[in-house]
Structure formats: structure tokens, C-alpha cells
Fold this protein.
Amino acid sequence: MTKQQQRRYSLYDIFAILFVTTLLISNIVSVKIVSVGWLTFDAGTVLFPLAYIVGDIITEVYGYRRTRRLIYNGVAALTLMTLTFWVVQLLPADSSWTGQAAFELTLGVVWRLAIGSITALFAGEIMNAYVMGRMKVASRGRGLWRRMVSSSLAGNALDTVIFSTIAFAGTMPTTSFWQLIITVFLIKMTVEIMVSPLTMHLITRVKKHEKLDTFEQPAKYLVN
């Protein structure tokens, strides 16, 4: 690899690490349901919008296929983390250690939550990147803010509905269930819209730094 190629993609690894880290932390803390005033949401909502922001930056600068590959890596990391928690949860605790109940309460694997999280993450992030990439090609790179918001609307809606349905359907009153979905979706979109000027500024700076602005029609399939 030449020095020019190394310099072109010098920021990609930073964004990739930030993306995967955000997914893992959000998943760990999402077991807590938070109530602030009339708002009810899972605690992962506090950080998770960052994953979509980083995803927008990577798709806009580096292209859909790099984003898709990163999503696969994120899903693999999340699956490995979940399986590790599950195995550790099953291992017998030493008689001198009294934290088994606390471990199971905080890090113990509830497969319904785990499957919901992994499925929603994959579907929502792929949708976000797909819409972002398609709109960029169709608009010839114009209307960045509109593309960011539109892709986030599609991705966040799919992610929130899938996760909430798999994880919480039937565990709470119907009114509370829909309140949770609507609240989480609105919080995610509000955060992304509020920080969108910063996101657009970062995209501009990254494009200039990397000397890269990828126009890439998303593939119709997930593997090519």
C-alpha cells in the first residue's frame, strides 16, 4: 500500500472503531428502561444515534460497500460479546464471589433482547446506508441534509420497530409499548437533527482531508 493510499483513508479506522464501540455500549446499557418526565425509553437511546451519525459520514465519504462491510463487522462483534456474556453467565461462580445475581441482572443474556438488538441493528443500519447511497447518486451529491435526515428516518424507524417488537411486545401494556416506540424514535431523530450541522461540517472536513467523495450505487444484494 502506498503512502498516498494510507493517507487517503487515515480517518476511516477511527470512524470504524467509534461505530463498533457505540454499538457495543448501546447494547449493554439498553437493558435499563429510563423514565424522564413523560418520556420512557431504553438507556441505549442516549448513545445509539451516534452510530447513525458515523454511518452517514462513512457512507457519504467512503461509500455504501465500506459501510456495509463495517455493519457486518459490528454485528459480528455484538454477537461475540453476547455469546461471551452468555457463557460467563453459565459458568459456576466461585463460592467466595457473591456477585452472580448482580452479573445476571446487568450483563446476563436475555435472548429475546439480544436477538432483537442484533436483528434491528443489521436491518436499520443497512437501510440507513442504502437510502443515503441511493439518494446521493440520484441527486448527484446535492441536498446533503435532506439525504441524512431521510436515511435516518428510514433506518431509525425500522430499527426501533424491530427491536421494540422482538424485545418488548407482550411484556407491557399496548399503550406503553407504542409510547416506547414513538419516544425512542423521536429522541433518536431529534438528536440527529440537532447535531446535523456538526455532522455536515465533519463530512466536509473529512472529504477534504481524505480527498475522497464516493458516488456508489448500492447493490441490490447484501453480498456483492
The radius of gyration is 19 Å. The chain has a mean pLDDT of 88. The longest helix spans residues 111-139.
